[in-house]
Structure formats: structure tokens, C-alpha cells
Design a protein that fits this description.
Blueprint: E1 8-11, E2 14-17, E3 20-21, H1 22-28, E4 33-37, H2 38-52, E5 57-62, H3 69-77, E6 81-84, H4 87-96, E7 103-105, H5 112-121, E8 135-138, H6 141-153, E9 158-165, E10 187-188, H7 189-199, E11 205-211, H8 222-240, E12 247-249, H9 266-276, E13 283-286, H10 290-293, E14 297-307, E15 313-317, H11 326-330, E16 336-338, E17 347-353, E18 362-370, E19 378-381, E20 403-407, E21 410-415, H12 420-425
Parallel strand pairs: 4-20, 5-6, 5-13, 6-7, 7-8, 8-9, 9-10, 9-11, 11-12, 12-13, 15-17
Antiparallel strand pairs: 1-2, 2-3, 4-14, 14-15, 14-19, 16-19, 17-18, 20-21
Helix pairs in contact: 2-9, 3-4, 5-6, 8-9
The structure holds ligand LLP.
Length: 433
């Protein structure tokens, strides 16, 4: 049976988030929808700050995990910086109140337009506040050359960190490792010195930092120790060659528990990072995404059919892989619970699927839920706050589902659904080219 953890729990037989009943919310709006807990979000941010900031480590939220404006605003208000990977994310971060002086622009394929917009917005500007960090995390010699050209055109001088590929192996799903040879990310360690030398004393670029991000959903501290060890050795080597590194961005990737299994809590990883970087005198930065938002959200869905079949019956939901992509893409299992606790009674195993015309639209196989499930019953996917709503699509001409934020017994819609009319409106005019 799935272990429920605060803020999602049963009260008098009904699933609640904080003190709001999920059934009541589902009576007020169409399913499926995402629902988040404000208290949990703020609690996660506080625990993260307590662990990292108390050790002098800066936090930049990796907004790709969840970029709904209201969630961004709450995080910006807590004083965190942001890690972004596209021009669109920059627009959202600015709209949510993150100043450019707290933005790190990562990403392996930033376009000319995106780099220009970010320089113009003030990302990486050097005369900034020393207590904040803003920089371009550059992933190739080619990108560095383009950034130099564009900074010169705008007569700006920007701070750069070179994202290094430390080539460490990580025990996580193969689709979410990023710091091994053969991954498209980062610059080979052997090339870093040469690039630093080449751009030493450049009038528009200052290579001040090194960055890494070795993967996601990592529950073990060893790969971090190994990778940070390599980064520190590189800092030393650069120092011998007269290049001073003053910022170390160690990325995110801290694993959470999806109902069962290990997690890498903020205290544990903060302690490891602090110990491994003890002799580094500059600023240390982390970029957590999932660990700040995953357990703040659930996806509420209704059963369309319980279809009798061999070897197992199917529970066919109104949510599909377009709404929640992680199971299809990474074979991820999000715990599923019934909204009515009694329906957790005598369990039977089902295959839990969505309505999309694809066999990959399968959320879980042989999953135990009550033997009395009926069409119309509500279920919730847990730990659906990170990489869930942000990865949606409109495949099968489905719409974009709404998002709700709960605070105590109050709830508000933080993102309206995008209906078919709106989607079709983009296809009315067909301008000639
Ligand atoms: N920094 C960089 C440069 C990143 O690429 C990422 C994630 C993060 C930070 C944040 O990592 P986190 O703390 O969230 O693990 N869609 C996948 C995860 C992809 C992660 C991509 N990069 C999933 O649903 O599991």
C-alpha cells in the first residue's frame, strides 16, 4: 500500500491536500487537473535554504521542473535564484520577479536570438551584486565564440562558467544521465584549460566559473563526490596556469522518493558538497529542480472505464500520456491512490492506462487498487509536481489541463485550461510566405 506523506493524506476516508478535499475540488472543475500544495512548496524551499544557504551555498531553482508562473513567483519571493534553459524560460522568470542578476542561463543549444535577449536583459552582467550570481553556462567552444561576438556587438561584458562533462557514471534511468562521455552535454575536461587561456583577458567575456550537472533523480552521494573531486582538480590545474575560478556550479539532480525507495535529502547532499568544496574560496551554487517541487503536486484523474480483460482488467483513466509523460518516457512509476480511502480495500491488480491511441499510454502494470473500482471514481497520481505539467502535449488533439494551488482550505486556479477552440484559433489565418 502506498505510504501517504504530508500534505496529501486521508481525512475521514477522503483524500485531502492540506485541508482541501480533492473530491470537492473535482466537483468544481473538470478532471484531469494538477493540484499543488503551497505549504509543501514553501516548506521544501525552507528546508533547502536551511541546508545550503547555512553552508554558504547559493540555490538556483532549475525552473524546467515546473515553470507555472505562480509557482515561480512563490520561489522568487523566497530569494532563490533561477537556472533557465531557453528564451521562453527567461521571459517567464522575469515575469515572475526573478531579477537578471539571479539568473543562470544553461542549455546546450542556445540560439543567437536567445543569447542576444539574455545579454540585453542583463544576464551575466559583471558589475552586479557580489552576493548574487548570474552567468552563462557555456557548453561548447562554438557557443563561447558566438557569445563573445554577441557580447561585443552589445558592448557588454558577461560572466561565463564552462560546463564540464566530468565523465562519471550515475545510477539513474539512462535517459536522464548527463555527465558521461557520449552525452551531448558539457565540454571535455581536457579542453577546458585551452579555452580559458584563449579567452583570458577577453574584453567582453570573463570565464569565472566551472559548472556541472551529472544527471537527475540521483539518490547516491558517490557520483557527486567523484565529480566534485574532478572539478576541484581542474580548479587547481587552472590556478597553476594563472586562471582563477571563483564560481563552482554543481547542478542539481537530487533524487526524491516516488512513494518508495531512496531519496537524497538536502541536508545529506549539502554536507557532502560543503565538505568536498571546503578548500574552494569562491561561490558554490546548486541547481535543484525536482527536489523542490516534485512532492508538492498530484494529478487528479477520473476513471472512464474499468475494462474486464485477461490477464488483468484495465483501469482506463481520463488522463493520458500527453498530460503525464514520465511513465511512457522513463518507465517512471508515480504512486496512484484512490480519492476514496475505502476503495483502497481488498486490492486487485490492474493495468492503469490512459485513453490515447498508443500502447505506451500506460501508467502502471499489475498495480494494486481496490477490487471495487467503478467508472467515475477518482484517483490521484502522487509526486507529480516536477517534469509533469511542463512536459504536456496536445497529442490526440487533447487540451492542456488546468492547475490548482491549495493553501489550507482555499484553492485557486493558477493555470486555466487551454481548450480546443483556443488551440484551433492558431490555425485560422494561414499567412502566405
Ligand atoms: N541543472 C541542469 C543544467 C539540468 O539540466 C537539470 C535537469 C537540473 C539542473 C535540475 O535537475 P533536477 O534537480 O531536477 O534533477 N524530465 C526528466 C528530468 C530531466 C532533467 C533535465 N535536467 C524527468 O522527468 O525525470
Amino acid at each position: 500500500m502506498t505510504q501517504l506523506t504530508e500534505p496529501v493524506y486521508y481525512h475521514q476516508g477522503e483524500l485531502q491536500m492540506e485541508s482541501s478535499q480533492i473530491r470537492t475540488l473535482a466537483g468544481k472543475m473538470a478532471t484531469p487537473f494538477y493540484c499543488y500544495s503551497e505549504a509543501r512548496l514553501l516548506g521544501n524551499v525552507r528546508r533547502c535554504k536551511d541546508a545550503f544557504e547555512s553552508r554558504g551555498i547559493q540555490i538556483h531553482y532549475a525552473m524546467k521542473a515546473n515553470s507555472t508562473l505562480h509557482i515561480l513567483r512563490l520561489i522568487a519571493e523566497q530569494g532563490l535564484g533561477v537556472d533557465l534553459v531557453s528564451g521562453g524560460e527567461m521571459q517567464r522568470a522575469l515575469a515572475a520577479g526573478f531579477p537578471a542578476s539571479r539568473m543562470i542561463f544553461s542549455g546546450v543549444g542556445k540560439s543567437r536570438a536567445e543569447l542576444n535577449a539574455a545579454i540585453e536583459a542583463g544576464v551575466g552582467r559583471l558589475e552586479g551584486n557580489q552576493t548574487e550570481s548570474s552567468q552563462f553556462n557555456v557548453e561548447s567552444a562554438e557557443e563561447l565564440a558566438l557569445l563573445a561576438e554577441l557580447a561585443e556587438q552589445q558592448n557588454a561584458r558577461v560572466s561565463v562558467a564552462l560546463r564540464v562533462n566530468p565523465d562519471v557514471s550515475v545510477n539513474t534511468h539512462k535517459n536522464i544521465t548527463t555527465g558521461q562521455k557520449g552525452n551531448k552535454f558539457g565540454i571535455d575536461m581536457e579542453r577546458v584549460c585551452e579555452l580559458c587561456q584563449h579567452y583570458a583577458d577577453h574584453s567582453h567575456l570573463a570565464i569565472e566559473g566551472l559548472a556541472m550537472h551529472i544527471g537527475s533523480q540521483i539518490c547516491d552521494t558517490e557520483p557527486y563526490r567523484a565529480a566534485i573531486g574532478k572539478m576541484m582538480a581542474l580548479v587547481d590545474q587552472l590556478a597553476q596556469e594563472g586562471v582563477e575560478i571563483t564560481r563552482l556550479d554543481l547542478g542539481g539532480g537530487f533524487g526524491i522518493s516516488y512513494g518508495q525507495g531512496d531519496a537524497l535529502d538536502f541536508e545529506t547532499i549539502a554536507e557532502v558538497i560543503a565538505a568536498e568544496t571546503e578548500r574552494f574560496h569562491g561561490t558554490v551554487i546548486v541547481e535543484p529542480g525536482r527536489s523542490l517541487v516534485a512532492d508538492t503536486g498530484i494529478l487528479v484523474s477520473r476513471i472512464n472505464y474499468v475494462k474486464a480483460a485477461e490477464p488483468r482488467s484495465f483501469v482506463i483513466l481520463d488522463a493520458g500520456m500527453n498530460d503525464l509523460m514520465r511513465p511512457a518516457l522513463y518507465q517512471a512509476v508515480h504512486p496512484i491512490v484512490t480519492v476514496n480511502e475505502a476503495a483502497n480495500g481488498t486490492a486487485q491488480e490492474y493495468d492503469i492506462v490512459g485513453p490515447i491511441c498508443e500502447s505506451t499510454d500506460t501508467f502502471a502494470r499489475s498495480y494494486p487498487l481496490s477490487g471495487d473500482l467503478q467508472a467515475g471514481d477518482l484517483v490521484a497520481f502522487l509526486c507529480a509536481g516536477a517534469y509533469c505539467s511542463v512536459m504536456n502535449s496536445t497529442y490526440n488533439s487533447r487540451t492542456i489541463i488546468p492547475e490548482v494551488m491549495v493553501s489550507g482550505s482555499e484553492a485557486k486556479v493558477i493555470r486555466q485550461p487551454v481548450n480546443q477552440q483556443t488551440l484551433m484559433a492558431f490555425e485560422q489565418d494561414m499567412p502566405a510566405l
